[in-house]
TrEMBL record:
Record keyword Metal-binding present: no
Protein's name according to its UniProt entry: DUF1996 domain-containing protein
Species in which this protein is naturally found: Kockovaella imperatae
Record field: compositional bias (Polar residues): 359-368
Keywords: Signal
Domain DUF1996: 36-257
Chain intervals for the UniProt region annotation (Disordered): 343-368
């Protein structure tokens, strides 16, 4: 049983000791599509993602393009980063799939480090991923695995690393904590090998960085909120990858922050240990804003993504779990093409109602 109030006081208490900045950027939704400029740059990606951040999101990432935007889903108007995770589906008893509503995201920025340890900004062009899309097992001693979590909103109980056992009346909050040690050289390496969790401690702690990744970067933590699948319908929670365990949740990040802002925030120390209250941190107060309706009109995959029942997940991903290993169709040929989006949709198709602009989760535990 978790008492959020007492957890919150632990956070406050430890912040008195560390006096380090901590802030949360809130997001409305941008687009859901098979786009992934890190793993599948320039092409249609393997599964549908729920994407927030810069309005200039594109199948190819560049820092310059991310910054060259007239809007962002963030409530910080200079944050033109992109943040994405797999979309959530329901698989119905007859085998069809519909997409669960994606409600928005919170992206947490935490300084977790040793005493007086230097910390480094994400350089322009920096990108990283956390989580493993096809993992169906769990080893609590591996920080990268423990960093993937679910918070079942509306019921009390601890966070879980797989899909929660019970229905979450106030939403399923999927969470992932990114590595916060960097090799100090590369903006990206295959398999996100340029970043690492600490050599000791917890996935979200300030444990010593390994010698291979000696430079501390911000601890980035995602909360993406989805409507949960109702168990009485007989439907099963299914990630866009086909994963029915939940262990394969993952997150992707491309940097679009202006150079120098983090350093200004760090210089404020404890003053910027503000959580959601950005107005209390002077460098963030200048750039905070209301969440605006940032319309996506970039490239999108021209396909149905599950507002009405689909016979197969977009990308033809078969379902899998621990007992039923993933068996992709080796004869599948990708035929989907990009079109220019109108308001985050492939066009005014009959079966694709435009997603309502949603306010992101206000159901915040304050537990980070
Ligand atoms: C992505 O970039 C590559 C290399 O510059 C380019 O050939 C390709 O057309 C781009 N793809 C899209 C979808 O813009
Ligand atoms: C399958 O079940 C879903 C959910 O009940 C329903 O909407 C859909 O029409 C069904 N499809 C078929 C082909 O029976």
């Amino acid at each position: 049983m978790i008492n959020w109030n007492s957890l919150w006081s632990i956070v406050v208490l430890s912040s008195i000791v560390c006096a380090d900045p901590f802030w949360v950027v809130r997001h409305g939704t941008l687009v859901e599509s098979r786009l992934d400029p890190i793993i599948a740059p320039g092409v249609v990606s393997g599964h549908t993602h729920a994407i927030v951040g810069t309005g200039s999101f594109d199948p190819n990432y560049s820092y310059e393009n991310s910054r060259n935007s007239d809007c962002t889903t963030a409530n910080v108007d200079v944050d033109f980063s992109s943040y994405w995770v797999p979309a959530l589906y329901a698989q119905w008893p007859n085998g069809t799939f519909t997409k669960q509503k994606f409600r928005g995201a919170n992206t947490y920025y935490q300084v977790r480090r040793g005493t007086n340890e230097p910390i480094y900004e994400f350089p322009p062009g920096f990108r990283m991923v956390a989580g493993d899309p096809y993992r169906t097992t769990f080893d609590a001693s591996v920080l990268a695995q423990d960093a993937v979590r679910y918070n079942c909103l509306g019921v009390t109980g601890p966070e879980t690393n797989k899909f929660p056992a019970q229905y979450c009346p106030d939403g399923l909050r999927a969470e992932v904590y990114f590595p916060h040690c960097w090799d100090g050289v590369n903006n990206w390496l295959d398999g996100s090998a340029h970043v690492s969790y600490g050599a000791e401690g917890t996935f979200d702690g300030g444990g010593r960085c390994p010698d291979t990744h000696p430079k501390r970067i911000m601890g980035l933590f995602y909360e993406f909120l989805f409507d949960d699948v109702k168990p009485e319908t007989g439907a099963k929670r299914t990630l866009a990858t086909g994963d029915q365990t939940g262990y394969g949740f993952h997150g992707d990040f491309t940097n679009g922050w202006p150079t120098g802002l983090f350093s200004k925030i760090w210089a404020e120390g404890e003053t910027c240990n503000v959580g959601f209250s950005l107005e209390n941190c002077p460098p963030l107060k200048e750039v905070m804003t209301d969440i605006s309706d940032c319309k996506y009109d970039g490239l999108i995959v021209d396909e149905e993504i599950g507002y009405t029942p689909l016979d197969a997940l977009p990308g033809n991903n078969p379902v899998f779990d621990a007992e039923n290993p993933r068996q992709p169709d080796l004869n599948y040929v990708e035929k989907a093409q990009f079109v220019r989006a109108v308001n985050g949709m492939p066009g005014p198709g009959p079966e694709t109602p435009p997603p309502a602009m949603v306010s992101p989760t206000q159901v915040d535990s304050g537990d980070r």
